[in-house]
Amino acid sequence: METGALQRALRREWVNQHREARDEIIRKYARLYPSGKTMLCQRSMKEEALGVTRLVGKIIFDTEEAALACAEELRGLYDGEGPKYTYECHRSKRGHVHLTSMKQRRRS
Asked: Whole-angstrom Cα distance, residue 83 to residue 90?
């Protein structure tokens, strides 16, 4: 097996082993449906009309504090790696926050 394929296989195995712990952490802080499933942000009507497909549902957090607490626990799980920044969703009608590993540029 070549090095790249081996690395991908090891990464997949590691992710599968940690998926349950990751899901528990996220459910502790994210907005949930009554069924206990994590709420995900949907594409806006404008994005739907434009046929935007790359936007995958992002986890919804009610507050920046909840998102940051979740990020801190995830970084503990992933040895310092993981989301570091929060941003308020511009698609939100009631107001909610998402996590990202990229620093967002502020609009003037």
From this structure: 19
Label residues 23-55 b or e (16+ Cβ within 10 Å = b): eebbeebbbeeeeeeebebebeeeeeeeeeeee
pTM for the whole thing? 0.70
Radius of gyration of the chain (CA): 16
How buried is residue 98: exposed, middle or buried, by Cβ count under 10 Å (0-12/13-18/19+)? Answer: buried
- In one-letter notation, the amino acid at residue 68 is L
Give me the DSSP letters along 41-63: PPPPHHHHHHT--S-PPPBPBSS
Residue 88, C-beta contacts closer than 8 angstroms, at least 6 positions apart: 64, 95, 96, 97
Type of residue found at 91? R
Mean model confidence pLDDT for the chain: 81
